[in-house]
Structure formats: C-alpha cells, structure tokens
Amino acid sequence: MNDPVATARGSDTSSAVKKDAIMTLPLKITYPPMEAKSVTELPSGANWQYEPKWDGFRCLAFRDGDESALQSKSGQPLARYFPELVDALLHLKAKQFVLDGEIVVPIKGRLSFDDLLMRIHPAASRIKKLADETPAKLIVFDLLVDERGRSIADIQLLKRRPKLEAFAGKYLSKNVSIELSPQTRELAIAKNWLRGAGGDVDGVIAKRLDLPYQSGNRHGMVKVKRLRTADCVVGGFRYASEGKLVGSMLLGLYDDAGLLHHVGFTSGIKASEKPALTKKLEKLIEPPGFTGNAPGGPSRWATERSAEWQPLAPKLVIEVQYDHFTGGRFRHGTKFLRWRPDKKPVQCKMEQVSQNRLR
Fold first, then answer.
1. Is residue 230 predicted with pLDDT exceeding 60?
2. Are 25 and 149 in contact (CB under 8 A)?
3. Which pTM does this prediction carry?
C-alpha cells in the first residue's frame, strides 16, 4: 500500500505552485519560516520574549484577496487537510496578510496531536468529516505581512509583536478558529509554563526581540522541552529474534554534509501494531539505509539473527524521547512517541541533540 501522506501531498503540490504565482504578496508561499534551536535552559535578559510551544503543526498562513494558503515548515501545502481554517482566513475582514502560527486540534478542552495526525489523509470526504467533528484552530504568534500587504518581516520582533496584537484585536476577536498566542518577557512566567509542559504546551519558545524575522534559520529563536525529544529518520529495522515481525527501528540523523548516520534504535512497539508496521517497513527496503555511520556488526552477545538489519529508503520520520546523547548516538534505547508525517527526513539534523546552553 502506498503511503497516504506522500500520495496526498503529491497531488496537492502543483495547485500550491499555481496559487503562489497568482498571489501578489511580497512573501511567496515557499517562504521558509524561522526555526528554533533546541537548548536545555531558557535564556534570560531584556532581549528575550517567551511564548508557549504548542503541540501541533507549524504553519504559515497566506491571504491575498480571494486566495489563501497554508504551508507547513517543510514546505508542504496544508490547505486541503484543514478546510475550516481556509474558510476562517477568507472570512477575515483583512484582505492581505501573512501569519506565522501553529495548527492544533482541541478535543474536550485539550490539544490532541493524534487527532491532528488523522487529518493527513488522502480522502477529501474523510477530511471534511473530521473538520466538522473535530475542527482545528490556528494559534498565531507572528505577523510577517500586514493588512496593507506590506512585508514587516525585516523589522525587529520588538515592533512586530505590537503590530500582531493590533491585528488580532481588530480582526481575530470574533473568529473562533484563529487566536493569538500569549507572550511574556518575564522569565518566571516562562518557567511556570515550562513546569506545566506536557499537556497543551510541550515546552517554551524564546525569541530575540532585537532581531528581524529569521527566515529559514535558527539564529533568533530557541526552544526548551520538558522532555528531551528528537525527530529521526527510520533508516532501517531489525526483525525480532523470533518470527518475521519487526523488533526494532533503527534511527538516523543527518550531518551538515548530508550524510545519514545511525544514532540508535527504538523498540517499544506494541505487539498489535507489529504486523502492519512490518509490512509498511518491508515495502521500503532499499540499500544503503545509512550513508554515514551504519549499524555495527555482531558483538559477542549478539546472535547472527539479531545483528542483521534491513536498510530502508529514507521516507519515514518519528519523534523519540531519549535521556542522553553521547559519542554520536543515543546512550540507551529511545522511547517511540509518534510519527511525524509533517516533517521531511532531511530536516532531521544532528544539531537537534547538541547540548547547548544559553544564559
């Protein structure tokens, strides 16, 4: 069976390109959002603004007259998966703008990433049903093009944030699908958000107030998660010691040269999910799997069977939780958290696991 995410995305890319050509906004749909560098401690000082890190899909929202677009961090069009947000954008009185935000799905007062993932589906009828039953929201935290169609991405966040708040006060107050994300410059409040992470908020973002929007780089924004997590490419797998079912998935991260290095494994796979997962992985078997450091050969404790591994085409991305990363690999086995179809494999960089501290 073909991967439904890849199939759905492939059918939508051409329409996004056409829409980009139609829109007259100063920023194109392909404009890369700024990214966050993972750190272990919140930075302090007058030059920092703190925001909750929402558990959803990062998204740039474009509106130009009767045209709108939703674009993921990896450059994938999202509009077909969230028709209710497209309608919400087109119902705003502002006719031109670009917003940076996070798409989330609230369920019974809490955000549900599992329900968000269900939206990435090839069937339009299924998407419409989910949009009616579990409507998504767009939580916005930056304004890049204002309602007059002028780019403000090149001005400091210190000046952009008040413009966003004025935009929200004027256009978003009656819109139930689009809301403003809170912010603070108080470190104590940000630490309280971090201590409460794990529900709707899975960490805290800190942004430099004195910098313009850092499109496509991590120079002006950092993130702190309560749990250490990393997005990894599934570069291979091993069968279980008995039977023909998957026993563990082998994890990879890219270095700056574009080589995919084996960095560890995850094996906490539910027994009920192994048959379907095995079939999914077997269809992706393709050497070399890892183009950098590869899984080692047999050790004196390993059997011939347990040391064998199957290379995969770099198509799948998962998020794992880990405790330590040393010597170019996770020290222990990782905990599988979730699939990340919203991430491109090439975005899974080694820099995620560097232990940097900012003070």
1. yes
2. yes
3. 0.75
